[in-house]
Design goal:
By secondary structure, the protein is an alpha/beta fold. It has two domains: 2-37 and 86-126 and 173-264, 3-Layer(aba) Sandwich (Rossmann fold); 47-83 and 132-166, SIR2/SIRT2 'Small Domain' (2-Layer Sandwich), CATH 3.30.1600.10. Helix content is 38%, strand content 18%. The protein has twelve helices and eleven strands. The protein has helices spanning 2-7, 11-19, 30-33, 54-57, 60-65, 67-83, 88-96, 113-116, 175-187, 205-212, 239-247, 253-265, and strands at residues 22-27, 48-49, 52-53, 102-107, 123-124, 127-134, 140-142, 162-166, 190-194, 216-220, 233-235. Strands 5-4-1-9-10-11 form a six-stranded parallel sheet, sandwiched between helices. It has a three-stranded antiparallel sheet with strand order 7-6-8, with helices on one face. Helix 7 (88-96) packs parallel to helix 11 (239-247) and helix 9 (175-187) runs parallel beside helix 10. The chain is elongated, with a radius of gyration of 20 Å. It binds ligand BV8 and zinc ion. Zinc ion (ZN) is lined by residues 134, 136-137, 139, 155, 157-158, 160.
């Protein structure tokens, strides 16, 4: 059974994986789907909160109009995410950080599951559901450890109202985070685009930039996306199945050669 599924990975992709030194990964909601976190789009539907499409409730305008409702929406989602566990896709991506010379993981997800699975230096393009930010002085508060339950939370520095520290529609992404992702995308040998519908900009530009700079572009998604047309490989399936499969073709230079040398001397 394993042999059959291994055959679904092309010889070309195996070769690229073996030779890759600089890897850039962009993930979206689909990578957390197998952990039980609902996606926003896909399967023909979109997320809705009390009749509002999520592009309305998750918007800059809604923070101004109804901050308490925005908190209710994010508290509901934090409840789901807080019970979720990382899945084999998160775990494989965490493992890869030690196997490639240069490795950058950028995510549109705000759930923190990449970090929970051991990934370091994750570029959170859209912020984190686990942080609040002061509307007056921009101070941040960790909601895992310092949430008193008050809504909206009050700033520990100036007493101002706080909002979720996420990038909503109509808001600009953190410039330093996006710049680091862009640099890695432009310099990588392989770019993986995993579990994203690739329609939210500017995040969706990153794989286009990688492709434009000569990277080998690989998509992992059960459905086609606007990026499929420019991908070298589109692997149709679930990230939690396909990433562990790809992992078998990633070479482990240091550990592998050491253990080979050790077994030769025995
Ligand atoms: C900006 C965070 C500059 C909070 C999110 C045209 C018209 C109107 C607007 C625009 C336009 N063009 C561009 C825009 C701007 C807009 C945009 O891109 N809109 C799109 C929708 C048209 N972008 C912005 O507003 C951005 N800012 O442009 O700033 C500016 C500023 C002011 C004025 C002018 C310019 C900010 C975007 C940030 C949005 N933040 N949310 C929250 O979560 O509530 S968006 C939201 O979508 C998600 O949070 C996520 O971060 C993002 C992307 O979604 P995906 O991760 O791709 O998830 P999705 O559900 O869509 O897809 C899941 C996929 O997984 C599917 O393909 C499915 O098949 C697949 N899947 C399912 N199961 C699996 C799987 N794959 C693998 N394995 C599985 N098991
Ligand atoms: Zn403040």
């Amino acid at each position: 059974m394993h042999r059959d599924s291994e055959q679904s990975i092309s010889a070309r992709l195996r070769e690229r994986l073996k030779e890759a030194r600089r890897v850039f990964v962009l993930t979206g909601a689909g990578v957390s789907a197998e952990s039980g976190v609902p996606t926003f789009r896909g399967g023909g539907g979109t997320a809705v909160w009390k009749g509002m499409p999520f592009s309305v409730i998750s918007s800059a305008e809604m923070v101004e109009q109804d901050l308490l409702e925005v908190w209710a929406w994010f508290d509901y989602r934090r409840g789901i995410v807080g019970r979720a566990q990382p899945n084999p896709a998160h775990l494989t991506l965490a493992r890869w950080q030690d196997l490639f010379a240069e490795y950058t993981l950028a995510t549109q997800n705000i759930d923190g599951l990449h970090q929970r699975s051991g990934s370091r230096n994750v570029l959170e393009l859209h912020g984190s559901i686990w942080r609040a930010r002061c509307l007056r002085c921009a101070a941040r508060k960790d909601l895992r450890t310092k949430d008193t339950g008050e809504r909206p939370p009050k700033c520990p520095l100036c007493g101002g109202d706080m909002r979720p520290d996420v990038v909503l529609f109509g808001e600009v992404l953190p410039a330093d985070v996006f710049a680091r992702a862009e640099e890695a995308a432009r310099q990588c040998d392989i770019c993986f685009v995993i579990g994203t519908s690739a329609i939210v900009y500017p995040a969706a530009m990153l794989p286009e930039m990688a492709r434009g700079a000569g990277a080998f572009l690989v998509e992992i998604n059960p459905e086609a996306t606007p990026l499929s047309a420019i991908c070298h490989e589109s692997l149709r399936g679930r990230a939690g199945d396909l990433l562990p499969l790809l992992d078998r073709f990633v070479v482990q230079p240091t550990v592998g050669s050491q253990s080979e040398a050790a077994s030769e001397t025995r």
